[in-house]
Write a structure and sequence with these properties.
seven-stranded parallel sheet, Rossmann fold, alpha/beta, globular
Length: about 210
């Protein structure tokens, strides 16, 4: 699948947006993307590789080109998964700004914001997080060990009245926000942190 034109187009499709650092991307990200495609009836899922997450330190963050390459490898072979660094072209740093810019440039697309339960835990720290819920439907996917904490988090409590039962979520992309759902999916064991630590350990072993 070709990368989306940052200047936009008139595509009339349902697109899941899975944002993150992808430092590196791994099988868990693909699992989330494929689950969203199936459970939400989406046409595509874009892995939005962030230039730099404002809540994460730049130290230890791999170059954008490397992270984008890892996301492309994760998407390889699936015709409806796309890894993109479109935020760089859009000139956006915060999710609220990215969603606003995408809505303007892809006016016929119906976007859904996708994220793991770990992000819901700390979403109240995100810049203008309420605006994200007001901009697009949101789908949260379980991630060990965060799911229980996620449902008790500030953002989940404040937006509780807009929560949609997961059994009704297939049409989420066509619903007017604010609306969100939580999928109690099978948990995937992959972790970017564990992958980085293993790589560091291997490097140290090779230098001894």
């Amino acid at each position: 699948m070709l990368s989306p034109n940052p200047w936009g187009d008139r595509r009339n499709v349902r697109i899941g947006l899975l944002g993150g650092s992808f430092n590196p991307a791994h099988g868990g990200h693909r699992f989330v993307a494929e689950t969203a495609l199936t459970r939400l009836g989406l046409d595509q899922v874009w892995l939005l590789v962030s230039p730099q997450n404002p809540l994460k330190a730049a130290a230890g963050m791999a170059p954008l080109a490397d992270r984008l390459d890892s996301a492309r490898r994760v998407c390889a072979g699936h015709p409806r998964l796309l890894a993109t660094a479109i935020e760089t072209a859009l000139g956006t740093r915060y999710t609220a700004d990215t969603l606003a810019r995408l809505a303007t440039r892809f006016p016929r697309a119906r976007f859904v914001w996708l994220m793991g339960a770990d992000n819901l835990v700390q979403m109240a720290r995100w810049d203008r997080w309420r605006r994200i819920f007001a901009a697009v439907p949101v789908a949260i996917l379980a991630r060990s060990p965060y799911s229980q904490r996620a449902m008790a988090a500030k953002a989940a409590r404040r937006m509780g009245r807009y929560r949609l039962a997961e059994g009704r979520a297939r049409g989420l992309a066509g619903m007017a926000p604010p609306v969100w759902t939580f999928f109690h999916t099978r948990l995937h064991p992959a972790s970017a942190t564990a992958i980085r630590q293993a790589a560091i350990g291997q490097t140290k072993g090779e230098t001894r």
